[in-house]
Specification:
CATH topology: Jelly Rolls
Largest sheet: 7 strands, antiparallel
Bound molecules: 2-oxoglutaric acid
Shape: globular
CATH class: Mainly Beta
Number of strands: 13
Radius of gyration: 17 Å
């Protein structure tokens, strides 16, 4: 099986700490967690979160239970996705793929383009277009709160929001989202990947989990949550066949991520 370890997503762009740093100040973005009624098999997980996700209601399904793969519909509206895309699209580059960007083998492995939606990038967008920038900043903040609520980890554990664009034929071959060196840093390893699709894709562009025999279709606002460090969560962005594909990704660390 193809396998790559993604050391490429290390963000060198830091976010300021002007945003809430704890789930405590998050407004109720998802329905209050009802007393959990997990499916019988959903009693424990490596992350201990199956009950939590099972309490999120009908928008939530579990394409896989072991390892836990959570799918949540309508995390963002189509308009919110469009605003993030409009701002992020200006900053996209192959270079944002990270430390391996100049490596021809890596360029073949990951042919999509990415950008970090840092506070600085959002402020620059606001200077260009005040309304759009303000809306995108509010949405990025909402994503931060949503991710904190979903993962039950403080927002200060998150890397800045990452946006990825695929054009027809572009792909991201199978990889894990881990950066081994981070385990030795104060932030610790990434413990959650939270991915939100920015648009419906006409054809192709599924997120494929080969070990789980799953292909998740890109649909605007649909979210996926999984453990980036579980070998069975090897995943790929399949080549887009028709149209474009945008995804927004947040990686959550065990400890505070330096801002
Ligand atoms: O595009 C996708 O569906 C997956 C993206 C991804 O795995 C990544 O950027 O790490």
């Amino acid at each position: 099986m193809l396998r790559a370890i993604d050391a490429a997503h290390g963000s060198s762009k830091r976010r300021s700490r002007s945003r809430p740093s704890s789930t405590r100040d998050a407004s109720p973005l998802l329905p209050a967690l009802a007393p959990p009624k997990p499916p019988a098999e959903a009693v424990a997980s490596p992350l201990g979160l199956k009950r939590h996700f099972a309490g999120l209601g009908e928008r939530t399904t579990f394409p896989a239970l072991s390892p836990l793969l959570v799918q949540i519909e309508d995390l963002l509206s189509a308009a919110e996705c469009r605003d993030l895309i409009a701002v992020g699209a200006r900053a996209l580059s192959r270079g944002a793929a990270g430390v391996h960007a100049a490596d021809p083998a890596w360029q073949k492995w990951r042919t999509c383009a990415g950008a970090w939606l840092t506070d600085e990038a959002l402020a620059a967008a606001t200077r260009r277009d005040a309304d759009l920038g303000a809306r995108a900043a509010a949405t990025a903040h909402r994503v931060e709160q949503l991710v904190a609520q979903l993962t039950r980890r403080p927002a200060s554990h998150q890397e800045p929001l990452h946006i990825v664009r695929y054009r027809p034929g572009e792909e991201y071959r199978p990889h894990l989202d881990v950066i081994p060196e981070q385990s030795r840093l104060p932030c610790g390893p990434r413990i959650f990947t939270v991915l939100i699709y920015g648009n419906d894709v006409d054809a192709g562009g599924e997120t494929v989990f080969p070990s789980l025999d799953l292909a998740i279709r890109a649909r605007a606002g649909r979210g996926l949550v999984f453990n980036p460090d579980d070998d069975r969560n090897l995943h790929a962005g399949a080549p887009v066949v028709r149209g474009e594909k945008y995804v927004f990704i947040t990686w959550v660390h065990e400890h505070e991520f330096p801002g």
